[in-house]
């Protein structure tokens, strides 16, 4: 059973560039909490606690967001939906928290991790990962931390298609047409892809 993490944020009254800049100067991150019921609450969170939770949950694990707002606290199962980082400063400019309903399936993107050394790579082929993450649909509690794909059996010119990816119980891949997630290509195909040198 995964440990259920929590993060406390404060409601904020001021919005706009000026107030947000002042918050960032104090190592605070402005953000917003919203859900599919139309709730929209401007919030602010301390930079360091946010980073610690984000490091553990990423953008695909549900945690308890505790909102301290108007003297009351509310707890919402949430995902970290969007994180806007500053282009060159070590600073998070804004974060979106998305409230989820534990009883409803949601669409999320989950990171792909390959394991094993493909047979085709041993004899000179090259492993190509075409998709770093995949869209899946499941209940919030079933969101996997990552999708592990075993590539050990792949020969040169073989691929693993999305329909063949083994997913945890209760998790389904979302796709309109079948596509390759990973493949082992031959050295000649790689050379031709670089312009046929």
Explain how this protein is built.
- The chain has helices spanning 17-25, 47-57, 119-122, 187-193; strands at residues 6-11, 28-34, 40-46, 63-69, 72-85, 92-99, 106-115, 126-129, 133-138, 147-150, 158-161, 172-173, 180-185.
- The chain has 197 residues and is an alpha+beta fold.
- The strands form three sheets. Strands 1-3-2-6-5-4 form a six-stranded mixed beta barrel. A four-stranded mixed beta sheet has the order 10-7-9-12, with no helix packed on it. It has a three-stranded antiparallel beta sheet with strand order 8-13-11.
- It is elongated.
- It starts with 5 loop residues before the first strand and ends with a helix.
Strand order of the largest sheet: 1-3-2-6-5-4
Distance between the termini: 52 Å
What is the H-and-E element order?
Answer: EHEEHEEEEHEEEEEEH
Principal-axes geometry comes out as: elongated
Q: Approximately how much beta-strand content do the residues carry?
A: 35-45%
> Count of helical segments?
4
Quantity of strands, as a count: 13
Poorly predicted runs are: none
- Fraction of residues in helix: 10-25%
């Amino acid at each position: 059973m995964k440990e259920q993490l929590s993060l406390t944020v404060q409601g904020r009254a001021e919005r706009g560039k000026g107030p947000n800049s002042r918050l960032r100067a104090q190592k605070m991150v402005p953000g917003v909490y919203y859900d599919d019921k139309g709730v929209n609450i401007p919030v602010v969170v301390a930079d360091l606690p946010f980073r610690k939770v984000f490091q553990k949950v990423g953008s695909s694990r549900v945690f308890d967001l505790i909102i301290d707002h108007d003297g009351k606290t509310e707890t919402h199962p949430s995902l970290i939906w969007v994180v806007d980082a500053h282009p060159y400063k070590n600073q998070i400019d804004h974060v979106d928290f998305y409230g989820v309903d534990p009883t409803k399936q949601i669409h999320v993107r989950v990171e792909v991790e390959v394991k094993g050394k493909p047979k085709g790579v041993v004899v000179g082929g090259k492993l190509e990962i075409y998709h770093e993450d995949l869209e899946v649909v499941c209940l919030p509690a079933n969101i996997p931390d990552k999708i592990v794909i075993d590539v050990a059996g792949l020969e040169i010119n073989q691929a693993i298609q999305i329909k063949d990816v083994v997913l945890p119980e209760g998790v389904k891949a979302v796709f309109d047409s079948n596509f390759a997630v990973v493949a082992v290509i031959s050295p000649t195909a790689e050379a031709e892809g670089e312009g046929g040198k």
